[in-house]
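New to this. Help decode both lines:
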Amino acid sequence: MPTEHPLAGQSALITGASRGIGFAIARRLGQMGARVSLCGRDKKALEDAATRLRNESIDAFAFPADVSRADQVASLVDATLKKFDAIDILINNAGVGRFGPIHQLTETDWDAVLDTNLKGVFLVSRAVIPGMLARSRGHIINISSLAGKNAMPGGGAYCASKWGLLGLTYCMAEDLRAHGIRVASICPGSVATDFSHSSTKDAKKMLQPDDVAHAVAMLLTQAPQSFISEVLLRPTQKP
C-alpha cells in the first residue's frame, strides 16, 4: 500500500457489520484510515461493535437497519451521509442462511434468504450509487460465496441468492464502470464465524474473517486504471 493510511478521508458503509466478516472488514478499513458506518439489525451488538472500534481510535458510527426494508435503508444512508458527508465505499456483507432440502424449505425461509442476501444488496446499492455518480468515483464490494458457483446439498435458497448476487454484481459493474465506480465480488469458501452451518469442518483450517478483510483491502488499493471484478477465496488446506 502506498501510504500507512491509504483510505484517509474516505467513508465506508458496511452492512452486517456487528460481528464476523463484516466487523473484520470495518476494523481493517478503519485501520486504513476510513471512517466506518456499521449497519446491522441488532442495535446492542452493533453499538458494542462500534465501541470496540472507537477504542482502537477508529471513527465508527452505528445505525441499526434491516437491509431488506427500503424505508430502513433510506434512513441508514441518510444518517450516514449526515455523519460523514459522503459514502465512498460500500461493502454489501449482510447475509442469512436457511439450509435444507428444497422441498422442506418454507416460503418464509426462501423469502428471508433472498430478501436479505439479494434484495438487500439492490436496495442499499440503489440508495448509495447516486452520490457516487455525483462524485464520479466509488467502490462497491459485494460479499458473495463459493456457494454462488457450486451447488451443495441443502443449499437451494442460499446458493440461489449467491448465484443471483454474482449476476447482479456483474451487471452493476457494467452499468457503473464508465462513471468511475468499481464494483466487485468476493466469493469466500467456508469462513470460521457464527454463521457457518458446518460443524464437521476444522475451524483452524477454515478461512478467517480477516482473510476476507484482506481481500477487501486489496480491491480498494488496486491501481486506478483497472479493476478486479471477482475474487475467489479458498483456504490453503481443505478443512
Summary: The chain is about 40% helix and 15% strand.
